[in-house]
Amino acid sequence: MNYDFIIDNGNIQKMVSYYHNYLEDTNDSRILYSFKSPDFKIIIYNTKKVLFQGKKNYDEYAKWAKVFGFEIIKQVDFSTYINEYASQRIIGSDEVGTGDFFGPVVVCAAFVTPSDKDLITELKVRDSKDLSDNQIIDIAKRLIEEFSYHVLVLPNEKYNSLISKGYNMNKIKAFLHNHAIKKMVEKHSDYQNIIIDEFCSPENYYKYLDGEKKIDNTKFHTKGESVHPAVAVASIIARYKFLLEMDKLSEKINIILPKGAGAPVDAVGKVIYLKNGKEIFNGIAKTHFKNFDRITK
Ligand code: MN
């Protein structure tokens, strides 16, 4: 995994004097400096972005992040996940998009076994909330090649129609998790446990699924992403899929849709509303969010 941050000119000079022995020539006009050793490659771009690559890139990244006072991204390996599940074949399930006004809800279930240990460590799989969008994209591209998973996208039209029929968000999540998990159980009947990143009590989860064909030995864990890498893998793939869907929606309405539910969302929402009216939101946003009232009042 690559690490990066953005620094000012003064700090660029500090790095240049530290690494000057490793300076290499480059013809790339986007690059200010490039440093290369057997252990790392560090590129400083015109944009003042510093990119750390190579097998010991984390050491260099962490050293400078500390010097410059940046919050250091934790390095995680499989040992982070040593617990009762570590020696088991696990289906993990997680969802994203539920706190975002724009865009779908995405749920993913993934299958991870002890033999994936090295890959989990190599890809530095961890809680998707600790990763930037670019890191998610980098890691997810590998994960979707290497792991078995099932991902479900609930488009905004469908989501809004379920809400108007009286479904609450947690019931919607329960249905999606259950469906993705069932698909994975069909594919991997040798699984030993199922872990869901807990979003409601197990009692409510099963109540929501009343009358459905359901898998009933599921384990619920808050911060499930740090309990087993299967949940972390699922969350990264789900977030990646969400980012792709956001790109598609942004392209469709020709404006970049912000994530989350904060002030930028209201500001962009207002622009969309003034240009297109109310109806368009049914296909791009979760219209029961308070953002919708603020945008359309
Ligand atoms: Mn989660």
Compute the number of helices: 10
| Helical coverage, percent range | 40-55%
Sheet-strand content, in percent, reads 15-25%
Tell the overall outline.
flat
CATH homolog superfamily of the largest domain: Ribonuclease H-like superfamily/Ribonuclease H
- Would you state the CATH class of the largest domain? Alpha Beta
Q: List SSEs in N-to-C order.
A: EHEEEHEEHHEHHEHEHHH
Distance between the termini: 45 Å
Which secondary structure elements does this structure contain, and how are they paired or packed?
Blueprint: E1 3-6, H1 9-19, E2 31-36, E3 41-45, E4 49-53, H2 57-68, E5 90-96, E6 105-112, H3 117-122, H4 133-146, E7 148-154, H5 156-164, H6 169-187, E8 193-197, H7 202-208, E9 219-221, H8 229-253, H9 263-276, H10 290-296
The structure holds manganese (II) ion (MN).
Manganese (II) ion is lined by residues 94, 197, 235.
